[in-house]
């Protein structure tokens, strides 16, 4: 983490940066200005002026005495000396630090974005982890929440994990890119010391700011360093998107399910969230298709069959460049697995299969066996008592199993039958069936909605 947070530009700003470093170290070890003055033999007034950025051309001996009193290690001491030696510096324009620009408009999810935004803005939560199956829209939700918080005055530090799909356009001159990478590196255990880099302390201090870790591997994050980061940067909020929870104290777990896709009964609802999402993608690939009642019936069935999973819906819509809606519906009825490949972006299909495969592989063996049995049963929905029957295990154990599967994103809740039930996601069925060497189970068409 060799990021230079301070860059040459004027002696006044240099002393302000130096003062922020001194103040951060002093508060970290719980000293008052008077106590630091006594330990360093520097006057209280001199320390106060340094911390406020009023001191001009601070002497090297003065900084050395303060560093001794603060018992700084070599790295922190070097940061103080660099701030003096450069003779002038400025803070990065953190107020300009905005989240990346999303590639697609937000379809639904406004209620979820409002909840996350308010919890982070108010400080009611300082760590929110958004979990869900790959392609469900975690990054897009985080972009919306980050944009709202930026509008509310919070600078946003955004970091996309290496290898994650970046569904956004980062700014070329984002001043927070390097500090965000430093924060991510610190939480991943980079560097020999568990001390928060003084440069980050100087940059953020106690100001309110949002750090987003998009596509994080929570298994590699260091909880002890998280605690230190949140203590030393009291205004920092952390929003994480991941396939699995961090499972640490203080974590607010936010489960993101696929879009609502009601079972098509009678007249199809064009305002259903999944249908609206599909219609948006349809307009992009086939603006000539007029969504009349017959088309809406097919679309509603497709959305329900694909469980409202956004990436699966986008991939299916891309196939309309080479087929019509009735043909697409026929493919989904027989074997939806090929539709996981987006015709305009082959990477999304392979990424989805790999991500779902990792999710399934990460489940306990008993959970995987249950998924296999549920898929083999060929039923659209299952109840908690079905899990008890299939596993022969006590109800509390089965309840925890269902929760694990919900958190993993491989099943979703359903109230189509008027009671609490669950569905194994179509993308999971397709992959599980392909892995087993069997054809993917297709759901029968709802009554009264024969394929056109």
Question: How would you describe this protein?
Answer:
By secondary structure, the chain is of the alpha/beta class. It has four domains: 75 residues, 434 Repressor (Amino-terminal Domain); 161 residues, Rossmann fold; 74 residues; 86 residues, Arc Repressor Mutant, subunit A, CATH 1.10.10.10. Helix content is 49%, strand content 9%. The chain is built from 19 helices and nine strands. The chain has a five-stranded parallel β-sheet with strand order 3-5-6-2-7, with helices on both faces. It has a two-stranded antiparallel sheet with strand order 1-4. Strand 8 and strand 9 form a beta hairpin. Helix 2 crosses helix 4, helix 4 packs antiparallel against helix 5 and helix 12 packs parallel to helix 14. The chain is elongated.
CATH topology name of the largest domain, in short, is Rossmann fold
Give the strand tally.
9
CATH class of the largest domain: Alpha Beta
Radius of gyration: 27 Å
Q: Residue-averaged pLDDT, rounded?
A: 83
Task: List low-confidence stretches.
Answer: 1-13, 87-92, 437-452
- State the CATH architecture of the largest domain: 3-Layer(aba) Sandwich
- How would the global form be characterised? elongated
